[in-house]
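Record 1 of the preview.
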Amino acid sequence: MDLPVTVGVDGSQASLAAADWAAREALLRGRPLRVLHALPLMPHLLPSWSRQTRPAGDLLHEVRHVLAVRHPQLLVRTDEVHDAVTTALVAAGEDAELLVLGARGGGGFPELRVGSTALHIAARAASPTVLLPADGPGAHPREQVVVGLDARRPAEAALLFAFLAARSYGLPLRVVHAEAGSAGAGEARTGEAELLARVLEPWKAAHPEVEVVADTEGAAPGRALVEASAKARLLVLGRRPAERVGLLGPVAHAVLHHADCPVAVVPEGVVLAGAEVV
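->
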């Protein structure tokens, strides 16, 4: 059975944009789309700003109609779940090829670029999770896929996800190796470039159809990746097996709060459809 691309919706514009992005991704992957809406168990206890303003069935009907018009060839399933949003979406990730969310939903402060719900799920979901920026991608050309990599401890699942994304989009893959505290010039910079080249050699051999640009940045990792996001169609980060369960590292936090493109967080050890780790 083909696992779906799953998207969470709450009626906010960010979640509706996420549904459209997820629909296009599902078509590209040849997968069905599951649209999920979580209903609170005790809505009367929620703050007024977070209460549902229209029946959930109406929301899902509207989303399904819009997707049918825009993507008539896509198989779409809609589901209502009576549970906390975070619990429902983390559970959905157990049976999804990809989980998609808006970085910020309808609640919280307008100034927030990424909400607590999105951070919670990105830190815990078993599937690769894509967060779409609250303001939508900027106006720059989207000419590459970017992956952040520590060449000393390469996250293989994230690297594989990035290669597969670059292949499916028909775009080059930019691999950004930016180690905190590393020198930005001279012999140290040369050594970092040689290290990255050795790590990437078998991956390039396994995916000759993907053009790879190796980038050893002198800047701090978070800053280097945020800058790279300006021209990226997708930015990919790895998430290691949690030593501290449910916590993202400082680089992931910086990227998720400031990236100018969708960000995929890929847990290490996840099995990706259609390929094997090199």
